[in-house]
TrEMBL record, chains A, B, C, D:
Keyword Hydrolase assigned: yes
A single GO molecular function term of this UniProt record: formyltetrahydrofolate deformylase activity
Protein name stated in the entry: Formyltetrahydrofolate deformylase
Active-site residue list: D244
InterPro entries assigned: ACT-like_dom_sf, ACT_dom, Formyl-FH4-Hydrolase_C, Formyl_transf_N, Formyl_transf_N_sf, PurU, PurU_ACT
Keywords: Hydrolase, One-carbon metabolism, Purine biosynthesis
């Protein structure tokens, strides 16, 4: 990272050294909020933000995200986790504790279209995206100059239908070595194998150049142009093995009209893709998304 | 029509008694705008608004809509039409001349869900929709009270897959007798036959309860809920023989999230349907739409 | 109320007979959420929705709104209130308990422009606004027919600068007799006295025909037209003694351009006023607004 | 300019070598459109886009913008201008002919906040802003590194209330030497003298960090925070001698709520400022804006 970004990140970490987040889902029943807030109080924590949702208060699934300040969080993290197990077991919770000052590590995958990558780098440089962009992997050389100018390691790994497994094994090695927390497919035009996807379940975010489920598949802007649509959209989602069918995180649209040729639709689409992908990544980094079946709960 | 609406319409007609519109499409070539504006000038008309579009300035299709003030328009309408034929022939134009003071006659088709009908009636009463709602046709009795309270004739014509041809012959008779200019399918849940559609080509506007082409077909809100979309949309379009595939006029969306159950998606959807349908109708009434192939040029 | 609305309201009440809401503000400190959720759990209540906000986690003001299901809520309401006092005192809480099935009573004040009144009546009839519109008070006769057609009592009370005190005493009498919970100024063009405002503190919602604080005062649309603005807005706010300066609840805007004459700006403005006022009222009815100084916390 | 941008600009120029625009305003009367389109036809030009507006068809001011393709435009430019004078005189027109391939030269003025400058540089690099950013002038050194990295000349000219005249004389010299067409105040925090403004009448675009006319003057975000607004806006306008009172070009807003501290309002505001300023500049570069009194006609 360059020195300005390092400074921004360090300031952020210092401001959030005692800030934690707990994300929980479990069968709904009375007493969950009381149990969680009692526990946090017993640890000396002050709740800063709390969001919850239940698919059905009588017997559905309950989701809660609590953000809190806890003195000496880093030293107490292990004991908190250990102590919380008792509460968690009582309510059959799946849960996750995160220290906000542990900055997440991102790997960006990109092919030849660089607008989404560029947006992420800009937001990162301007301090709007607090993360560690640890590396960029591409099956093309197009992004190298831009990436290396920011002192981010760039890995050129040729990838195609033919050498998929080989390419993925290289990628997985690099990802593991760098302890990557989140993979961002910023217009990466290769399909990932089920095995790769499984390794990073709910940790791969893709941007789809359409308002799903419309125009799935190839050449969406050509399809949209032919159909004469009045809106163009984009969708960010977690990657699953069903192509373009993973849990949707965010969608947005912009207005177009009869004057917009395919080239223009692509330009407008690119602009939506940029913002929709950046939003999804921010929510993920702030632990605001819980995947439930093929949907997301977003506590934005 | 009740007296308040009659008064609004009469005021409108008086203000627009010399207001005309000409809509043209023809192969693009230099000199079209000059020829049309020369012609209007020779008739003593002043151009108020002019919109044009060309699919391709070198050899595409050219579209123009001109709105103008012309003293004594009503008396001169025939001679203008006759005189314009010469210009039109020279450029191989398809064209249409409209006197704004000739209020268009609308027939609304509706089934059991009344929100779109209700919206149109409200806008009509409040003077936001200047038209003659001549009659309402329904395959249910649900709308009768609302419609007749406004002194609009209501025709109950049972319609189903089985009696389609019979029902349509009744409908067509009523439409013809009332010189209907535009049919609005305001959540009318019956399919129209090709023969019916052909009789009113580009004169039937439908509202589709989805952001086409996503969720074509039955139960779109159930589909949208299952897919976990973050946006809900609606589409208004001219009716062709391809179900839900006619030229799109207008689309819009609203944001939803994980908390929205199917019931709520329907409510939100209904709200978008209302505004998207009303917008499409207004554009049609103001002669702002030209159908070109399976697309629309909208001079809004 | 007419029978359809009565039916809707009764269905709503039945579905929410055990639904309660508690709104709290107090000095922030650790343990508040734990105390409140423990209390609700001890009463057998299940938390359905919970929103909180702190102006400053170290020593600011803390706000929380909890919606819950509690078996036999109506019978237990008093004992719950009594029992909660202990918790409340411990944390120096200001608080309010509401039974959702106790439908709030609204009085609408209106002058000659009826679009906001009309919107509220439409939403009420269509079941989008669950409330008891108990009466309408006006200093003009313009609204009488519309209001009485829905069997809502209409009170014509002439009001002007000169007879303000007399008019208000009449109004206050009617409001008290009808146990009014919320007064909606739906384009009511009279100023209220400090004494009146104090009687219904944070219970009077006004719609201001501008995007405050721009164009305060008379003829905002003329001002906006002259200034050549590209956006038109509206603001709903609680009424205080500073004219148009009370806590803002909601604002919205629409795009305009050079073609929009004053008449059109007014029409567009009226449309925003309608939706902005309706939104503010819904949030108030759902106890989603807490007034804090001259601002609002809205848990939407 | 760096080589990529040079290439983009050259491609643009080549595609538009025969593309011209004529902007006209004159007293409204019948025959203007006919005269203009006849003239263009006589020159062999094909009209590509045409927009018009009249403040009042019976005796107001008429505005028209015509974009056309004319073979050998560059060679014929002078003779076209000469020949058009006759038409112009007949209708008392003020008019301007522009060759699209003559790329406009921009000077950006900036102080310490760089987000607007940064946005313009990004859009310029990505080919979304086709212009010649000839130089940057600043009263601070903050922007130097960023600007010079793109090979754009950077001029540090200290400016304050005290040395205003001296600083402006330096600035004017540089602007004149570089044949600057448009000055962009991208958060330049110095007031310009009437004499400076007059030299570049309707050629200076400013971004105001507020939704004018709300929060004119210092610390708008502090004011907005204190007032508890629910929307934050920004305004781009031409600079006149009335501070922040020049003709508005574009405005936009974003939604905020009680959780947004002043810092966050500023961040959100900065994001709107960026897009609103960029939009205004694009419209200016495409000759889409006509200033009329203290307002703009924007043919977007």
């Amino acid at each position: 990272m360059n020195s300005l970004i390092v400074k921004q990140v360090n300031t952020f970490k210092k401001h959030h050294e005692n800030r934690g987040r707990i994300l929980i889902n479990c069968p709904d029943q009375p007493g969950i909020v009381a149990a969680v807030s009692d526990f946090l109080y017993s640890q000396g924590a002050n709740i800063i933000e709390s969001n919850q949702y239940s698919t059905n208060p009588s017997g559905g699934t309950f989701f809660i995200r609590v953000e809190f300040e806890c003195p000496n969080l880093k030293e107490k993290e292990r004991s908190i986790s250990k102590d919380f197990t008792e509460v968690a077991n009582k309510f059959s919770m799946k849960w996750k504790l995160a220290c906000v000052s542990e900055i997440k590590k991102i790997a960006i995958f990109v092919s030849k279209e660089l607008h989404c990558l560029q947006e992420l780098l800009w937001e990162w440089q301007s301090g709007d995206l607090i993360t560690d962009i640890s590396l960029v992997i591409s099956n093309h050389e197009a992004a190298r100059v831009t990436v290396e100018a920011l002192n981010i390691p760039f890995y050129y790994i040729p990838a195609s239908k033919e050498n998929r497994l080989h390419a993925e094994s290289e990628q997985l090695k690099i990802l593991a070595e760098n302890n990557i927390d989140l993979i961002v497919l910023a217009r990466y035009m290769q399909i990932l194998t089920p095995s790769f996807v499984k390794t990073y379940e709910n940790q791969i975010i893709n941007i789809h150049h359409s308002f799903l489920p419309a125009f799935i598949g190839a050449k969406p802007y050509e399809q949209a142009y032919k159909r004469g649509v009045k809106l163009i959209g984009a969708t960010s989602h977690y990657v699953t093995n069903d192509l373009d069918e993973g849990p949707i995180i965010e969608q947005d649209i912009m207005r177009v009209d009869h004057r917009d040729k395919i080239e223009n639709l692509k330009k407008i689409g690119a602009s939506i893709e940029r913002s929709v992908l950046a939003t999804a990544i921010k929510w993920h980094l702030e632990d605001r998304i819980i995947v439930h079946g093929n949907k997301t709960i977003v506590f934005s």
